[in-house]
Structure formats: structure tokens, C-alpha cells
Amino acid sequence: MGENEVAGKFEDRTLVCMDCGRSFTFTSGEQEFYALKGFANEPKRCPDCRDRKKQARFGQDSREERQMYTATCAACGGPAEVPFMPNSDRPVYCSNCFAKIRSDGHDDNKSSHGRYSNY
Ligand SMILES: [Zn+2]
Ligand SMILES: [Zn+2]
Predict the structure, then answer these.
(1) 61 Cα–ligand 2 center, Å
(2) Rounded distance between C-alpha atoms, residue 53 and residue 65, angstroms
(3) Number of domains comprising the chain
(4) Shared domain check, 32 and 78
(5) pLDDT over threshold 70, residue 113
(6) Does residue 93 sit within a domain?
(7) Ligand with an atom nearest the CA of residue 96
């Protein structure tokens, strides 16, 4: 029935994590997955450390790579810091003016208390 082809191709192996030094199991399923993906190298870290590494890097990157650009606010003329490259097609606003403009724009749909409370 060809059971030899499926079973025994991969065996659970015990590897040592290069980060924490603990041994972990490189399961046959994972080996199969690696082979399928064409990964030549076996994992060097235990799943815990891999997760930690991924999360740490993710957190750092999103913070570090968020480069701020300085532009001139189109409304008040003050310095405006924006997380994107200022584009001449679009006016750039400082956070104060941006908040003001945004709340003005949404006022009609939601609550217009602020604007019409005086009439
Ligand atoms: Zn580890
Ligand atoms: Zn402004």
C-alpha cells in the first residue's frame, strides 16, 4: 500500500536553539513543510524564540521606519510633521489644523452640535 513512502520520510528531530540553548523538536510535519517550501536550512531557533524575534523585529521596525517628513502647514503656515513624503498635489496640515479640518468635514454627517448650537 506504499506506506513506506509516506511514513519514515521525515522523522522528528531534536535541534538546539541558538538563542536560548534549549532543545526543541523539529517535527516531521515541519520538515515536510520546509522541504515543500524548498528551505535548505533547518530552523536555528525554537518556536518560542522565533516568535519573540518576529514580534520584536516587527515592533521595532514599525516604530523606526516611520520616518517623519517636515512640511509647511497649508492652513496656518507652521511646521507640519507628516508620516509620508509631502506631495505638492496635496496640501499638508499640521496636526492641529488637520484635526480641525477633519472634524469640520465630518460634522455634517454626525453631530453638528458644535456648529449649530448657537442659532
Ligand atoms: Zn529558543
Ligand atoms: Zn496648521
Answers:
(1) 29
(2) 17
(3) 2
(4) no
(5) no
(6) yes
(7) 2
